[in-house]
Amino acid sequence: MSGTQDKFRMMHTMIRVFDLDKSIKFYTEQLGMKLLRKDEYPEGKFTLAFVGYGPEENNTVVELTYNWDQEKPYEIGSGFGHLALGVNDIYAVCSALEKQGARIPRPPGPMKHGTTHIAFIEDPDGYKIELIGLDTMR
Where is pLDDT greater, at 14 or 112? Predict the structure, then answer.
């Protein structure tokens, strides 16, 4: 499969959200992403918001899909794992996120078999986001 990486590029991960404004606020204000674009599709009754750390042209981003007629929050499917973000000083990052009201079901600490420190937080819809301590990786 030589050269496959030249043919494909990861574009985005899509998750369905119940409250678009709350989700945009979480990803931008708490995780420091930027709202890159927001497109409404009245004929399909949905809105797409793309958030990330840089332009879509050369960065992988998160697509937040809001279906206008969704009456209750989505159930997290058993096939979904998590998004992962690398951070420096994972303890300080988690402390700051906790002060902002973020849920942290797995506080920062070392992995069971290794020196890398990780934590898991949840977005407003309950999607898991793994934080990986870049300064603890070996």
Answer: 14
In a domain, 134, yes or no: yes
Report pTM. Answer: 0.85
Phi then psi for residue 61, to 5 deg, are: -130, 175
Task: Catalytic residue, from 40, 75, 98, 130: name it.
Answer: 130
5, part of any domain? no
How many domains, in total, are found in the chain?
Answer: 2
Residue where a domain terminates, one of 28, 48, 74: 74
Order of strands, sheet of 61-67, starting from the edge strand that comes earlier in the sequence:
12-16, 61-67, 46-52, 34-41
Which residues lie closer than 8 Å to 132 by C-beta, 6 or more apart? 84, 85, 86, 87, 90, 116, 117, 118
Q: Is residue 55 part of a domain?
A: yes
CATH number at residue 57: 3.10.180.10
Residue 130 bears catalytic tag? yes
Name the token pair of 90: 């994972």
CA atoms within 13 A on the CB side of 13: 12
> How confident is the model over 19-44, as pLDDT tens digits?
999 999 999 999 999 999 999 999 99
Which residue range is the domain that position 29 belongs to? 11-74
